[in-house]
Structure formats: structure tokens, C-alpha cells
Amino acid sequence: MMRAFASRQFLAFLVTGGIAALVNFGSRIVLNLWMPFPVAVVVAYLLGMVTAFLLARAFVFAGSTQSVQRSATFFVLVNLVAIAQTWIISVALAYYVLPALGVRAFVNEIAHGIGVMVPVFTSYLGHKRFSFR
After folding, report:
1. What is the number of domains present in the chain?
2. 49-58: per-residue pLDDT in tens?
3. What membrane topology does this protein have (predicted)?
4. d(CA 52, CA 54)
5. How many CB atoms sit inside 10 A of residue 72's CB?
């Protein structure tokens, strides 16, 4: 299992995922101007997910023999797990953990940044095994 993370493919996944994470993170900041933090986290995640699918299909798993429809279906299923991880961690950190630690500045940004990073490994394995076989 550790070999999967020591590969060019995983490195490409990190780069394309990093771009998608920037879309996710940046759009959450803008969306948060018009909607509550928990809702903005979900909408931003969806924008990042579309970006991630397009980049992963084109640059990480280009050799996939699955149809785009099948890949997209599994991609969404894998990301349902990831969005749950992102949302739970982001909201828990923003509303409970960071305030309890006395953090007052950039609480939403810190919480969301950590929340976006957590599902990297589970998502890679899910996409490699299911979304882009």
C-alpha cells in the first residue's frame, strides 16, 4: 500500500489535487461573503471536485479504460466520503477545537485548509481503485 504513495502518479495526483484544493479554498472564501461557513464549505468542495475530476482524468489517470460516465459516478462516490471528512473536520476545528485552543485569527481558513488536506490519501486510493481503473 505504501508503494502507491511513492509514485509519479501520486505526485501528479498531489499537483492536480493541489490546484483543485486552491479552487476549493479560494471559492470558499468568496462564497463565505454570501453564505454561512458550513454551506460555503460544501459548495466550494463541489467546485473543487469538478476541477479535480477534469484534471485527474486528463493528467493522472489518462490511461483509464473506464467510460467517463462510470469514472464520474465512482468519482462522486469516493468524494462523498471525502466531503464528509472535509466538512466534519472543518466545522469541528472552526467551531470547537480552534476556539478552545484560543485561536482567534483566520479560524475558518485554518479549519478549512486542514479539512481539505485530510482526505488526500483516502481519495487517491479510492480514485485509483474505483474511479479510474
Report:
1. 1
2. 999 999 999 9
3. Multi-pass membrane protein
4. 6
5. 15
